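Field reference: "sequence" (input) and "structure" (output). Example, ABC transporter substrate-binding protein:
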Amino acid sequence: MRRAERIGIRTRRLIVLLLTLVLVASPASAEELRIMTSYQADVVDPMLDAFWRSHPDIRIRVLNKNTNAAVDEVLAGNDRRFDLFWASAPEAFVVLDSAGRLADLGYGPYTDFALSAVGWAWRVPHDGPVPQEWNDLLDPTFAQGIAMSHPMRSGTMHSLLETILQDRGWQAGWAWILELGGQLNTISARSFGVLEGVESGDFDIGLTIDFLGLTHDGLAFRYGRPVILIPARIAALQGGTEPEAAKAFVDFVLSPEGQRILLRPDIRRIPVDPDIRAELLETLDPAVTAALNFSWSSYDPELAARRYWQVKQLFEAFVARDLILRRDLWRRLRALDDDAPAAERARIRRLLTWMPLTEHQARAAPADRGTLLEWSERSHTILRDAEARIRALEQQ
């Protein structure tokens, strides 16, 4: 995609967003369905257009908002009276359900409408190696060439962290995440910023979810193995004013017509309807097909919800706040002369991959700013210890 086209698309999206914000700021009208979603227009609009054709009497207003900010707004009371919440991070719905903020329209407090999985994208053509598995992302070849968005701003990245933690376990999962921190070029505030940076050549690899990576021109996408499928969901909200219209929209999304829209090449979602999904099977990655057939590859949103705040804040404290220092320490460790004692190098590596909190300890801590500051200081203390040990080896 040419730069001028990208600027034009961004400008149109900004105009639509500004108009939506103005409309949403006004009091809810009697026949207006209001949807809050983390999805961009290229995902939302095809579904809305088809729904409008069959329900011309229902007016719809859509607000695009990142998952974490949307959850905060709903937990605070849904003062703007949104009827539906529509997003890819399933644990967000468990959090809202636990707080009594969801309304049952006949499907339970929420319903799955699509499946996704996380991995990474790169620009094509691409000179040089490409990561094949999760552990390949830790290869020094890709040092400072990887970008991701912040899980405090991106439900997709929170799901990516949970994919790693659920597959590997708490300590081994955090060891991988902390080592990944040494590979990062940047932590973006937006999921789309990561892929735009890959498109422009600012980053070599962008961590992302499949439907974003697969629908960007000029990018290739690979699923991390094992593929762990993540359900995308939609739910009605307490405080909404149009429950009948909300149910009509959910019914449509789950209908054969709505599910078939997900197959479009510009959307590339995996439908939950097995009959519709069968139309996609020939083009699915074999690893995804295998994941659909094995229960061990399923994502556990309830587990993710129980540690929702803790995982995001641990990433902030142990990766984001000292990203430059952590990245530099990994570089210096790898640059040490082979004559440096192997035992001391191993000790430093253990420090750089050590999460000093068990899951129980993290979940038992108060969910407040004081805890975040305490965790940040613990991380910085570990990094200072590692730096002192590296400096001693460098001076020998």
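The longest helix spans residues 369-394.
The chain has two domains: 3-116+230-284, 118-226+303-394.
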